[in-house]
Backbone:
């Protein structure tokens, strides 16, 4: 099984940005957590990050043509603005779990809208970077396959 972990804008700034919201763990720690979780489960993990919406759409489409069985995605700010990401996930029909590090429900009103959620099999929010572990386990245990 192969899972692609996609991170959107500013996730590469973990450990630097708003530690009271996102915690003090950095992006390298997040990547290591994902890789270790995959190793324990016998799942191949690829982690990828971009600050550019079109690049994220391209990576979702890439997943379709490269044998990816599941996607874990933290679209970050694009969660609340991007119909393009929603359409990309719908187009590829790869089981996708939406992850948010912070407790989105406790944040600003504009953050209550998630366009991508309509195409996801599950949403995980407010677990910090451990939410990625939960998402990977969910996809692996459900044994989603194309």
Residues:
């Amino acid at each position: 099984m192969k899972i692609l972990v996609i991170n959107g804008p500013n996730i590469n700034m973990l450990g630097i940005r708003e530690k009271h919201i996102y915690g003090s763990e950095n992006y390298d720690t997040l990547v290591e957590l994902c890789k270790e979780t995959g190793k324990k489960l016998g799942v191949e993990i690829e982690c990828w990050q971009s600050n550019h919406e079109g690049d994220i759409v391209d990576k979702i489409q890439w997943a379709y043509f490269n044998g990816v069985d599941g996607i874990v995605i933290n679209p970050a700010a694009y969660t609340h603005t991007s119909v393009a990401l929603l359409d990309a996930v719908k187009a590829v029909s790869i089981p996708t779990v939406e992850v948010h590090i912070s407790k989105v429900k406790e944040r600003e009103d504009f953050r209550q809208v998630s366009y991508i959620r309509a195409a996801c099999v599950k949403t995980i929010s407010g677990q910090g970077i451990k939410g990625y572990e939960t998402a990977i386990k969910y996809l692996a245990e459900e044994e989603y396959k194309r």
User: Anything to note?
Assistant: The mean pLDDT is 92.
